[in-house]
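Lecture 7 notes: from sequence to structure.
We start with the chain below.
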Amino acid sequence: MSELRLAPPTAVSGGGAPDVSELLAFVQGAAADPAVVATLPLHAHDRTWRRLDGPGGSEAWLIGWPPGTGTGWHDHGGSRGAFATAAGVLDEQSVAAQLPTSGWTSLELAEDVDRERTLSRGLGRSFGPHHVHHVANTSAHAHAVSVHAYYPPLPLMRRYNRVGRTLSLTGVEVPEEWT
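Predicted structure tokens for the same chain:
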């Protein structure tokens, strides 16, 4: 897909790397801009995306979610980030625990680490570099659209399988696989 350039809604503090509040301000501003959202073609069954020019060298994406689609469990390779819903509703399940980044293939999660959020139009959230989550459009009929930003740009994404309390590493994707 093509790249869309946007001016960030706020300057990055001190001209350096954007922090999570700046990433959140960017994704919320882009998600609230109907002209930006309208640039994304939607597909009936497959997710669609368009790369955006994020603030301070961040990686940003506009993503379309057909009904019933999701990401699967994943992390962002040590990048911090934010996302906001521009249309529809997204549900996020996350693990509120810092997981080791290497040296394991399966972990038993504690009872109290699960978090769930529902993000309707205009709502967003930010997260730190150790965030593991699954995001989905659980609607049976309506598309959702969201804006995501990450800093540093994603070096990789680890994919996981979740069965009950067990989280298992299933693979590692590099940027060439999703651009």
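Points to note: The mean pLDDT is 91. Residues 49 and 158 are 19 Å apart (CA to CA).
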